[in-house]
Design brief:
292 residues, alpha/beta, Helicase, Ruva Protein, domain 3, Rossmann fold, 2 domains, 9 strands, 36% helix
Amino acid sequence: MPTAEELLDEAEDVLVASPAIDHPHRGREMADAEDLLDFAVGYDIDLDEEVDRAAAQRFWRYVARRARGEPTSYITGAIEFNGLTLAIGPGAFIPRQSSEFMAEQAVRRLRSRVRPIYVDLATGIGPVALAVADQLPRARVFGVDLTAKPVAFARRNAKALKLKNARFLKGDLFGPLPKTLARKVDVITIHPPYVGTREIRDLPDEIRRFEPKESLTDFSPMGMGLIGRVADEAPGWLRSGGWILVEVSPDRARTVASTLRRSGFRDVRSTKGDLDVSRVVVGRRGGAPSED
């Protein structure tokens, strides 16, 4: 029987040779292979451990799927985000590690509130909302998404993590939120689908072919339609001095900042974390001194 190390070395060669893996996972082939092998055997296997035939066959089936471009998290059904293990599957946007910075920014602005209220739009499987709920048990956390499958995953994740302070709703932006939250929300976050319709064909293959299109684009030519709506509607939900945080690519940051300013937000600026792949544009609803 082959050892784990022998299987991993062979799988790495297969994944490196695959033309379908063309996103940030380039250079992560060994890490992907390790995740798939652990999933195949059911535990974290040691390199010198032998792998039985059934587990090896499962492993090679998973490697073949990955080599065709299918994201590893869809194959294993799980992804790590901010120290939390979240369930995921096809039909749901895969959380980006860069979004951990937006969660940190939200927590920092909520921590001083006695009973903070937080809303995460386009929440997907709930990574940012759940990270906030986990760190701030006193917070009332609401996640909203337009489609049913991600909301189902988010609710499943909240239940598995025993986060009773997180509630996930299906609907369009602020539509499904309780009306009693109007002008009471402390922080709103969104990682919007901002890819323009003409740019979809240029996305990496494993994103374009596997992730749901509605999680990538708002179907507007420049990808800014949804951001404009959020900027216009958010002041009706934020308390005086409340914050909006928008995660976008660096090339969109200036446009988003201008959009927030036109909607009356103050203290607007672009921030970035350790990963230089996205920006979090922040803005404060006027009427109170800055809390940052």
